Amino acid sequence: MATRSDALTSSTGLSYRRAGHGAPLVLVHGYLGGSMQWQAEIDRFAGRFDVIAPDLPGFAGSAALPPADRIASFAAAVVDLLDELGLTRITLLGHSMGGMIVQELAANHPERIARLILYGTGPLGAMPDRFELLETSRERIRTEGVARTIQRIGATWFRDGAAAKGFDIVAALGALASERAALAGLDAMSHWDGRSALVRLTMPTLVLWGDGDQSYRWPQVEMLWQGLPNAALAVIPGTAHAVHLEKPNLFHVVLEDFIMTARTSPAESAVRGHS
């Protein structure tokens, strides 16, 4: 098994990180993100779980791959990686745009998802209450470039803005994406609507949200919480869109409580008991 610092590459060229042993835990980053943003989670959970964190096509370590312009295409890339690694039953977490991706994946492959964590996300890609319209972000990427855009957008993901601990990794990862990939990601979100699929996501699901999130406001979060058949809600006070970087210890405790107490199948219990 790879150590936590290893960056691996799939047969399709997708970059990913993998560490640990036990039941699989897959972490999917969001817009202009990357697998390295999950280092604290890899460190925390690799002792009990097989943690896998991909770099989505067009972003971070997968920046050389053709970018995806639809959420379904991103989800297909994650499924290809799961298939290659032989992972048939997983706990799946998605952050921000990654939350849309995992909703799409779970709706099409519900039998593969033991538990679902929808973190800082919603069921509507257009995000009508976002800090700025997606079209505004699109225009500013074209005029200002990706590096300046992630500095500006990334600052809204933290209560303390650009001064926050964790901002530097967000800015560095985002700057690795090309303009084409950044624009394609916005297109993917603007064309996606997962509201009709919520009733099909019957697996135990945690909806996790920072109370100061400017990207996904409460109406989006409430739609998830109320629309999912088997959902729990965790609101983290004093945080924004990057809870895992702002209050990592609290983030980890909430995740552990959900992952360890959500109902498991006999097969999963056996895997955990012998890992």
From TrEMBL:
<dbReference type="InterPro" id="IPR000073">
    <property type="entry name" value="AB_hydrolase_1"/>
</dbReference>
<feature type="domain" description="AB hydrolase-1">
    <location>
        <begin position="24"/>
        <end position="248"/>
    </location>
</feature>
<protein>
    <submittedName>
        <fullName>Pimeloyl-ACP methyl ester carboxylesterase</fullName>
    </submittedName>
</protein>
<dbReference type="GO" id="GO:0016787">
    <property type="term" value="F:hydrolase activity"/>
</dbReference>
<keyword id="KW-0378">Hydrolase</keyword>
<dbReference type="InterPro" id="IPR029058">
    <property type="entry name" value="AB_hydrolase_fold"/>
</dbReference>
<dbReference type="GO" id="GO:0016020">
    <property type="term" value="C:membrane"/>
</dbReference>
<dbReference type="InterPro" id="IPR050266">
    <property type="entry name" value="AB_hydrolase_sf"/>
</dbReference>
<dbReference type="Pfam" id="PF00561">
    <property type="entry name" value="Abhydrolase_1"/>
</dbReference>
